[in-house]
Design brief:
CATH topology of the largest domain: Rossmann fold
CATH superfamily of the largest domain: Tubulin/FtsZ, GTPase domain
Mean pLDDT: 91
Largest sheet: 10 strands, mixed
Number of strands: 12
Number of domains: 2
Strand order of the largest sheet: 3-2-1-4-5-6-9-12-10-11
CATH class of the largest domain: Alpha Beta
Distance between the termini: 37 Å
Strand content: 15-25%
Number of helices: 13
Structural class: alpha/beta
Helix content: 40-55%
Length: 349
């Protein structure tokens, strides 16, 4: 199952053929009524696949949604009508800049935990050039999710995401929000991926990941698998110091006829050697190949890098939003103790 939240990600998963029919994953969209009224992409919305939130005013901050849920009840009843026992694995997608998405994600993940679902989330995180309220929403939501260990977050810096240019397997251009679609497709194509990632996140105590990726790379043109691994470092989805990672999960998608050349064992050896050479990193790693029935020699590599030292990033954001957050606390727009705990979770003090 895939759940998209808010306006920014409304355009992803727009191909109805991927989510209709027996054996296909279910798609749910959670939106504010204004997202529906002003949507700029043509996506099918009906009562079966859309939860439309009505509020007296447009929520700009995460705590606006918390107040709305406190007064009107949360989304549990709406979710019960759409999420069933056979929906064991759930992938959520959201932009944490938005008041709706940042306010909905923590209670959504709490609900999924109560129902015994395996959950992971792809979240678009605002860059430092974005507004204080966007940074405040994202900072707060990551803190709230981390406090309760509600499942792994896969962070994509919005500026990095929108600057990314790659190649699809069919030769088309891969860029912008298309990258999110690409990741969703890859993750859903790896049987048990969400369940495995959620279990590894709990086992290793790693709640935040980001992405290194190389898409549609010809093995013949790049001459070796190692050279394609190097390509993943050229456009990271977050400014990172790879040497601080505490866990790595690599997915390699390749044509079935290359199965003998790119075995799971060889991929593991190549990735381990590459990490040691490029970052002097000797961390737990999982490498999973996904073989597809295709001609050609196109390779996709997605490396989820977890447990990075992100205190510098969060400290910079905290400094940037300090005046803004202080005013919000002084006006008692949200709980002071909750904010103290959010900051402690992300800053370590």
């Amino acid at each position: 199952m895939v759940i998209t939240i808010g306006r920014y990600v409304l355009g992803i998963c727009s191909d109805p053929g991927r989510f209709t029919g027996d054996g296909k994953p279910t798609l749910i969209r959670i939106l504010h009524r204004k997202d529906v009224a002003f949507k700029t992409v043509d996506v099918g919305l009906d009562s079966d696949n859309a939860i439309v939130i009505e509020t007296a005013y447009e929520p700009h901050y995460w705590f606006d949604m918390r107040s709305h849920f406190d007064e009107n009840g949360d989304l549990s009843e709406d979710l019960e009508k759409r999420i069933f026992g056979y929906h064991e694995d759930v992938l959520s997608v959201a932009s944490l800049s938005e008041g709706v998405a940042s306010g909905v994600l923590p209670p959504l993940l709490s609900y999924l935990r109560r129902e015994g679902k395996s959950a992971a989330s792809i979240v678009v995180f605002p860059s430092m050039v974005h507004s204080s309220d966007a940074l405040f929403n994202a900072f707060s939501t990551v803190g709230l999710v981390s406090m309760d260990a509600l499942g792994p977050l896969i962070l994509l810096d919005q500026s990095c995401l929108e600057a990314f240019v790659g190649v699809r397997r069919d030769g088309g251009v891969l860029m912008g929000s298309g990258v999110i679609d690409y990741l969703v497709e890859l993750f859903l194509g790896k049987d048990g991926f969400i369940r495995d990632l959620a279990k590894l996140s709990r086992s290793f105590g790693v709640g935040i990941f980001t992405v290194l990726m190389a898409a549609g790379c010809s093995l013949k043109i790049y001459e070796s698998f190692r050279n394609i691994l190097d390509i993943t470092l050229e456009q990271p989805m977050l400014d990172l110091d790879l040497s601080t990672a505490s866990m790595v999960y690599a997915i390699v998608r390749a044509p079935l006829h290359l199965r003998g050349e790119l075995t799971k064992g060889r991929i593991e050896l190549e990735v381990a050697s590459w990490l040691k050479e490029r970052a002097d990193l000797d961390a737990p790693q999982i490498c999973d190949p996904v073989y597809v029935e295709e001609f050609g020699d196109k390779i996709d590599i997605v490396i989820l890098v977890g447990g990075l030292d992100m205190r510098g990033l969060f400290a910079s954001i905290d400094s940037r939003i300090s005046r803004f957050s202080r005013i919000m606390v002084e006006q008692e727009l949200y709980d002071r103790e909750a904010w103290i705990e959010i900051r402690r979770q992300l800053l370590g003090s």
